[in-house]
Amino acid sequence: MFNKLFKKTNGTKALPQQLTTDKIPQHIAIIMDGNGRWANKRLLPRIAGHKEGMDTVKKITMAASKLGVEVLTLYAFSTENWKRPTDEVQFLMKLPVDFFDTFMPELMAENVRVNVMGYHDALPLQTQNVVKQAMETTKNNTGLVLNFALNYGGRAEIISAAQSAMRELLAENGTVEQLTEERLAAHLMTSSYPEPDLLIRTSGEMRVSNFMLWQIAYSEFYFVDKHWPDFNAADLTEAVATYQHRTRRFGGISK
Ligand code: V07
Description:
Blueprint: H1 2-5, E1 6-8, E2 14-16, E3 27-31, H2 35-41, H3 46-67, E4 71-78, H4 86-109, E5 113-117, H5 125-137, E6 145-152, H6 154-171, H7 181-185, E7 198-201, E8 220-223, H8 233-245
Helix pairs in contact: 2-3, 3-4, 4-5
Ligand V07 binds at residues 32, 35, 50, 53-54, 57, 76-77, 92, 95-96, 99, 116, 131, 134, 148, 150, 228.
């Protein structure tokens, strides 16, 4: 069974047959859209969709880890999501707690390192604490980085990075011209990660909604109609296979 579905690769990793070992994206970013619509379709409350979506996070994390992806960034909550009804926001803010309560042993066993990027200060204290603790508990893990964007906005991130970079320059008596792309990128929340090779958005919307605006300059985009709770490991493999068949040019011409 195992041998039929997977081919052994050079290392210890087993890959789905559709994929080649080279060109595995180092960094995949996902906009996990369609949880509310998934619930509506089933006449369930929106929070039922969010809960199901959290289970998908677990499955996709494991699948990405098995593929050998280095960083998986998931858009969990945007700075605009505070506009939602209070009870929905409250439910969403408990999901990180729920997530680590049920999933920490598996994350540790899979050698996953957790990071959370975004504006932590505005989060409920319990959420802040669980996030801090998860990052601390997993900090020596050397496998997949599971990076949650939580209370995150792309434009706000760029402004913060520019302010922080300028502050640094002023302290060094630097000039405005010294604010280069490299210097600004060093102040982004993703400074230690490669830029996303592949950006996936579920549920059929074709926009980036203020997600990682700086970092996706050269990312390949993959849009899929399925709602996030229905997205599975085979869909992730399909997205990566599509990515592997594309030629990236980074503004140049392909050889
Ligand atoms: C949330 C489930 C996935 C679909 C998108 C909306 C609902 C996992 C987390 C999470 C965040 C940080 C963290 C650990 C887990 C999460 C929110 C919503 C707000 F450190 N899923 N998930 N956070 N959904």
